[in-house]
Amino acid sequence: MDRTLRLALGSIAVGVAVFGLKYLAFAVTGSVALYSDALESIINVATAVAAFFAVRLSAVPPDDNHPYGHHKAEYLSAVTEGVLIIIAALAILREAYFGYLDPHPLDAAVEGLAINALASVINAGWCLVLFRYGRRWHSPALVADARHLWTDVVTSGGVIVGVALVAITGYTRLDSIIAALVALNILWSGWKLMRESIGGLMDEAPPPEVVNRVKEVISTHAAGALEAHDVRTRHAGRLTFIQFHLVVPGAMTVAESHALCDRIEAALHRDIEDSVITIHVEPEEKAKHPGGVPVL
């Protein structure tokens, strides 16, 4: 099984375990805030399943209908996660509203908080794993899953502190207020996730540091060429697509220009993992900056 698939499958197992613990914490205490935390964990499981199938589909080799591969399937998964996060937040707001109107005292607060804290520790550990390997392997689905889990970890920490204050002060409406704050934070997280995923679907350029690095590598290894211009980059799942025009002297043979392109491609592959490179060779009269070798 592919390494990314194994992580996505692991997210499902972790999500189920964490949901079980958080729901147990809610059942023990009756806390609306802990209920909101448990409800978000249901979304964790659903999004982990979506990420698993998206990663699996993105790994399918190119075919006649999809000659550039299926890598953007991971962005669709991330958009789905954003929608589910927003739905969960609205459901939590509803429960917080009714809980505020009719507050109830908490039962077994210490036991419930201890169970919830254990679930949060598990979530935090898995979140770090997903962040590390999702970024290393350029997997939007895994990174999206990690960001959602991190939101869950942060909000769980706030919930634990808030529920502890409810138990100490006896102000039961604070439980519903905390749940509403959790929901608003989840809404913001869902919006940011959807914005980034839509950017990927729209062929948004990689971060400026990646674009600048691409230009630097081309410039460093383009000895023999006159210039490189119209450098364009975009992300599609774990792949980085790079294309540019390379202007060479008119006397350069096809074999020599091909060897030059191979040298630049090899350097880019070493520096930019999972890159797909297209170089259009042009004669010297196509140069946009005669006399120089700039990379534009």
Automatic annotation (TrEMBL):
Bilayer-spanning residue ranges: 12-35, 41-61, 73-93, 113-133, 153-171
Gene Ontology terms: cellular component: plasma membrane
Ranges where the Cation efflux protein transmembrane domain occurs: 11-202
Gene Ontology biological process terms, A to Z: intracellular zinc ion homeostasis
Pfam families linked: Cation_efflux (PF01545), ZT_dimer (PF16916)
Residue stretches making up the Cation efflux protein cytoplasmic domain: 206-284
Name the UniProt record assigns to this protein: Cation transporter
Origin organism lineage: Bacteria, Pseudomonadati, Pseudomonadota, Alphaproteobacteria, Hyphomicrobiales
